[in-house]
Design goal:
This protein is α+β, with helices and mostly antiparallel strands. The protein contains 13 helices and 18 strands.
């Protein structure tokens, strides 16, 4: 891993919080992700399953975590299973976690090699009444590939059919949505790396550069600051490409007079950042572009102030819609008749702003969080309004990541990343 070691107290606390919500005499199992094949002997870069990382800090394949807080055998209340390392593996693949290093990383004292899993698990299951399985129930999830977790669950329920079954996901949705200060600091680091990439790009963009060249500038800066990759597939969209919400081809030339929308974020230690900025390729906004830009920025600033404890996500989006409607009227994109005759299920503003304004963010870019529950302090949200005008050849979106506070406005983790139109122009023309 490129990132600095994380304080194991984070993972000790996370396990304690998870186990406190488990049913009496129950056991929970968490698996690492597979390494996914491409073809021949090539594979995709390994990405750890965020749940086992959240609970252990272990960031390697073929790892299994078992939690059994009520186990009468104290040494079996937290057990970590790892692929056994050896000199051959160290030479060909690099060093894997030793038992000693795993304790240092996770705070778990009882570490076994993976070949002991079935034997030790049988001993634990004989003492447990309920087993927690870890299913993916995120509201955006569409999983077609059978994961290592799913394969293990199938095996486990077939081998132990007499146990009651419970779900880990509802507990994790709650716990992962509330960030520890250590986590907030890691997300801040990811945002700071993103800032460095953006400032590099402000010095680089000019008429004639290609979208993929801009993408390359970002990843150069990210990697040299200990990020291993983009937090998600980057969107580098010039001109009318910005009106394709998930444009990822990034293969067009940036032309004089166009705007360039960049939805880009660095990861750090598996934690995401999620930034969007829109800049003028020529270094200056036209009057019309600046008017739309400032309207989007006003909506973002007003929306941010609404992210306070007790706010309901659905109500928040209704209020943001009202703000956006007002701005679109002022820009002449809507008239009063459009609003008076709108379909309540698809308000008039949706013609120019068709996506949501905020989502949870953390270990996943679209992080865990139960949207029907009121917002709470230490939740991290994006704020990302946009206005998309295909007939005028540009789209503008602005996005920051913020932490909800106990009182007052959220804390903006991207407060140092330039966003005001005049500041962007000044930097690009210095």
């Amino acid at each position: 891993m490129k990132y600095d070691a994380i304080n194991s107290q984070l993972f000790i606390k996370n396990r304690k919080n998870f186990m406190a919500q488990m049913k009496p005499n129950s056991l929970a199992v968490f698996n690492s992700n597979d390494i996914y094949p491409v073809s021949a002997d090539s594979t995709l870069p390994f990405e750890q399953h965020r749940d086992i990382f959240f609970l252990s800090g272990v960031d390697q394949e073929e790892s299994v975590l078992v939690l059994f807080p009520d186990c009468p055998k104290e040494n079996l209340r937290e057990v970590l299973f790892l692929r056994e390392t050896n000199e051959h593996i160290a030479v060909w693949e690099g060093e894997k976690l030793t038992k000693e290093k795993a304790l240092e990383t996770s705070g778990i004292k009882n570490v076994h090699w993976l070949q002991d899993l079935e034997k030790v698990l049988a001993e634990m299951m004989a003492l447990a009444d309920t087993v927690y399985i870890n299913t993916n129930e995120h509201y955006r999830a569409t999983v077609e590939t059978e994961t290592r977790e799913a394969r293990f669950t199938k095996w486990l329920l077939n081998k132990y059919p007499a146990h009651s079954v419970a779900k880990s996901n509802p507990i994790l949705q709650r716990l992962r949505s509330l960030k520890d200060q250590i986590e907030i600091d890691l997300i801040q680091t990811a945002c700071d790396i993103t800032e460095k990439g953006f400032r590099r790009v402000l010095d680089f963009v000019k008429p004639g550069v290609w979208e993929y060249e801009v993408e390359a500038e970002f990843i150069h800066e990210f990697i040299r600051n200990r990020s291993k990759k983009f937090a998600y597939t980057p969107i580098i969209a010039s001109g009318n490409n910005a009106n394709v919400l998930h444009y990822i081809e990034n293969n067009q030339q940036c032309k004089a007079g166009d705007l360039l929308l960049m939805d880009v974020g660095a990861e750090y230690a598996n934690y995401s950042s999620d930034m969007t900025r829109t800049i003028p390729v020529s270094g200056r906004f036209t009057d019309r572009q600046k008017a739309v830009y400032n309207a989007v920025n006003r909506v973002k600033n007003y929306a941010t102030k609404m992210l306070v404890p007790g706010t309901l996500w659905a109500d928040y989006h209704v209020e943001v819609g009202k703000l956006m409607t007002s701005e679109l009227l002022g820009l002449g994109l809507l008239d009063k008749a459009d609003v008076q005759n709108e379909d309540p299920n698809w308000p008039a503003y949706k013609k120019y702003f068709m996506h949501g304004t905020s989502h949870h963010m953390g270990l996943d870019t679209h992080d865990y969080g139960l949207l029907h529950q009121p917002m709470e302090a230490n939740m991290v949200f994006t704020v990302e309004p946009g206005i998309y005008i295909p007939e005028e050849g540009f789209g503008i979106r602005l996005e920051d990541d913020v932490v909800i506070q106990e009182t007052g406005e959220p804390f903006n983790l991207m407060r140092n990343i330039p966003i005001e139109a005049d500041e962007i122009e000044d930097i690009m023309n210095k």
